[in-house]
Amino acid sequence: MCREWIFGRCQKRILNHSCVKSPAGPVEKSQSDRTGFTLIELLVVIAIIALLLAIFVPVLQNVREQGQRAVCLSNLRQLTTAWIVYADEHDSSLLWGISTGSSRWSIGEPPHVHEIFRVGWATGRKGRSLTEGTLWPYLGDIDVYRCPGGRAGHVFTYVIVAAANASDVEGTLSTETNTRPTDPGKRIGKTVLKLTKLTDIVSPGAAQRAVFIDEGQMSNFCFYVNYLYPMWNGISPPPIHHSDGVTLSMADGHAEYWKWKGRETVEGLPRTTTTIGDGRLFYEKTEEDYEPQTEDGLYDLQRLQRAVWGRLGYPSEQNK
C-alpha cells in the first residue's frame, strides 16, 4: 500500500515536470519550460527575414513602378486626345506647345499650361494656372498633368516636344525669319518638320510623330531636341524616369514606354540637381550638349529625333 502510494506520488511529480532525484542530481527542465531563443536560433530567424526582404522588396518596387507607369500612360493618352480634339475644333490648327508661356507670345492664345503655373507653384495658384491653360476645358482634372512618379512638389511633368508647334529649332523653319508659333515649318518631301496643323502629319504618320513626353519634373517651355546635330541638347537631357526609360505619346493618341537601350543614355550626361522657385523644389538639369559615343546611345537619340521631327537632319549610317 505504502509502495503503491509512493510510486503514484512519483509518477504525478514526473508528469508535473518536477525534478526527480537521481544519482547525478536533479533532472533538467523539459524543452517546453525553456523561454526565449538561443543566439543561433535568433540569427537563423534574422537571416530568413533578410532573405525574404531581399526577394520581396524588389518585387513590390516593380509592382509599384508598373502601377505608376500605367497611370502615366493613361495621362498621356488623355492629354493627347485633348490635343487632337482642340485641333479638330480649330480648323486643324495645333495649340501652342510651349509650357508656362505668356499668352502674348502666341498672339493671344494661351499655352496648354499657363504662365501662372511657373510663377505660382508654391503660392496656391496652381489651379488657376491650369484652368487658364488651353487644354483645361477638355480635361478638368489636375492629376492628369502629372506622373504619379514625378518629383515631389512638381505639379506637372508632361511637356510637348519642340516639333509640335512649340520651339523654333535650327534647320526646321520655313524661313530664317520665322518667329511666330503659327508660321509653318520646313517641308522635306512629305515630311513637315515643325508641325502647326494636324494635317501637316503625313509621312511618317501620326502613330510615329511624338507629342507629349514625361520629363518627371516641370519644364521651362518644351522638350527641345536637336534636328541638325547628333547630340542631346543640354536644356533637355533624355528623361530617366520609369526604370531607366521614358513614356511619351504619339499624334494618333496612343502612348508608349521606351526602355533606353544605351547605358550612356542613362549615365553619360553629367546631371546636377538645383532648386527652383522659392528654393523648395528640386530640379535636375545638365549644362552641356552631349554627343553619344556608343552605338546604343546613338540609337536612343536618333529614335527620339525621328519621333519628334519625322526624320534626321544629318547623314546617318541608318539612312544609307
Your description of this structure?
By secondary structure, the chain is an alpha+beta fold. The protein has one domain (63-311). 31% of the residues lie in helices and 12% in strands. It has helices at residues 2-15, 39-89, 115-119, 126-131, 136-139, 263-267, 295-309, and strands at residues 99-101, 113-114, 158-160, 187-188, 191-192, 210-214, 245-250, 255-259, 272-276, 281-285. The strands form four sheets. It has a four-stranded antiparallel β-sheet with strand order 3-6-7-8, sandwiched between helices. It has a two-stranded parallel sheet with strand order 1-2. Strands 4-5 form a two-stranded antiparallel ribbon. Strand 4 (187-188) and strand 5 form a beta hairpin. The longest helix is centred in the first third of the chain and has 51 residues, at 39-89. The radius of gyration is 32 Å and the shape is globular. The protein starts with a helix and ends in an 11-residue tail after the last helix.
